[in-house]
Amino acid sequence: MKNLQLIATCPMGLEAIVARELKELGYENTKTENGRVNFDGGYEDICRTNLWLRTADRILIKMGEFPARTFDELFEGTKALDWPDWIPENGEFPVEGRSHKSQLSSVPACQGIVKKAIVEKMKQQYKHEWFPENGARYVAEVSLLNDIALLTLDTTGPSLHKRGYRKVATEAPLKETMAAAIVLLSRWRPERPLHDPFCGSGTLPIEAALIGWNIAPGIRRSFSSDHWPIIGENRWEQAREEAYDAVKDDIPLEITGSDIDPNAIEIARGAAKKAGLGNEISFQPVPVNKAVPLGDYGCILTNPPYGQRLGDDQEAEKAVRQLGTMASRQPNWSLFAISPAKSFEHYFGRPADKKRKLYNGRIECALYQYFGPLPPRPQSH
Questions:
Q1: Who contacts 114 (Cβ-Cβ below 8 Å, separation ≥6)?
Q2: pLDDT tens digits, residue range 127-144?
Q3: 13: which of 87, 122, 279, 321 is 20 to 30 A away, CA to CA?
């Protein structure tokens, strides 16, 4: 097994959750940095982590890291790496880039240098002057931070939040990765009921159901490295078979969602059906003040609507007040709400037991956590 240095990238604030997911998948040796978790693995782990990670954005292969204060250093450092081990002679290899606090601040110039260096390395290996780039895609990225260049290859393609069940993003959408993070942070268990009273297009209930049934979130989509000869179709096939075998679809789920917008409910039902969960989640067009989740010791997980600032926007303010009233009618339920509104607790009617800073897209939010009592343990006879 080839030992690779792999990187799971993620939104700021989710690093610890990605690290926990990796540990649960059996990866012991993880190292957390801003917006990424580094871990070791082989070719098959590229397949497994792309299929299974719920809160990461991409799986990258670390090709190399070196100081690059000049274009010469960037060129030579890049050329020294083993690109032809990965990229076949017909591979398509666009270069993406970013630079932060570095002397080489022109990203297009850095991309050009890296592309040129990879081409030179490929010429040495394949003895050609020209490459058609009409095969599988190998996106290289150069990332400069404090004059250190990190070069990676992206194995994922479109970000992992694109699970394939959601057609179009509705207004102020919650990314699937963030929705999964909220479910994981809530410590919800599939034997407890779950309700989202502002369910929009259904992302939170659907992600909860995927977790409840142990369905790999990437099971219905394809990845860039599906077509990489070095990984091989057999490894991908095996990883997908393992994922299908791991599904626990005999667990009864009590997952519901409601929203005042009937159009959103139609979209949510369509998405649940596409995710293979059409019969497991019930969506109803009901305003929050009429929503009555069924069962005891459940979890309300939600992303209430908000204006730019709560308090300016009367609709958003009213929504949070009504959420507070609804929650007070469910004293043995827990509630987890993500909101950028600093005045959320004021309108909700009580301070949160715990708050956690998260970023939804580029918007700084807090996850407001209100803990209800845990369900009583079943009596043993």
A1: 74, 78, 95, 97, 140, 142, 151
A2: 999 999 999 999 999 999
A3: 321
Smallest Cα–Cα separation from 361: which of 208, 112, 174, 163? 174
Question: Where does residue 26 fall: left (phi above 0), alpha (psi -120 to 50 degrees), or beta otherwise?
Answer: left
Strand, helix or coil at 146? Answer: coil
Residue 281 in contact with residue 253, Cβ under 8 Å?
yes
Query: Quick one: which of 236, 255, 238 has its CA closest to 188?
Result: 255
Segment 42-69, tens digit of pLDDT: 999 999 999 999 999 999 999 999 999 9
- Tell me phi and psi for residue 143, to 5 degrees: -125, 115
- Which residue has 């990225």 as its token pair? 141
* 15: number of Cβ within 10 Å: 21
The alpha carbon of residue 315 and the mean position of all alpha carbons in its chain are separated, in whole angstroms, by 29
The burial class, CB within 10 Å (0-12 / 13-18 / 19+), for 256 is: buried
Whole-Å CA distances, 152 to 27, 72, 141, 147: 20, 19, 5, 16
Q: What is the pLDDT of residues 91-114, one digit of tens each?
A: 999 999 999 999 999 999 999 999
Which distant-in-sequence residues (6+ apart) come within 8 Å of 106 by Cβ? 99
Distant-in-sequence, close-in-space partners of 62: CB < 8 Å, separation ≥ 6: 4, 5, 6, 7, 38, 150, 151, 152
**Strand 30-33 and strand 95-100: pairing?**
unpaired
d(CA 159, CA 137): 15
* 56/25 Cα distance (integer angstroms): 13
Nearest-angstrom CA–CA distance, 245 and 184: 22
> What does the chain come to in residues?
381
Q: Fill in the DSSP letter of residue 356.
A: E
Asked whether the beta carbons of 288 and 323 are under 8 A apart, the reply is yes
User: How far apart, in whole angstroms, are the C-alpha atoms of residue 361 and residue 25?
Assistant: 26
**Structure token digits, residue 128:** 């050609």
CA 158 centroid distance within chain? 11
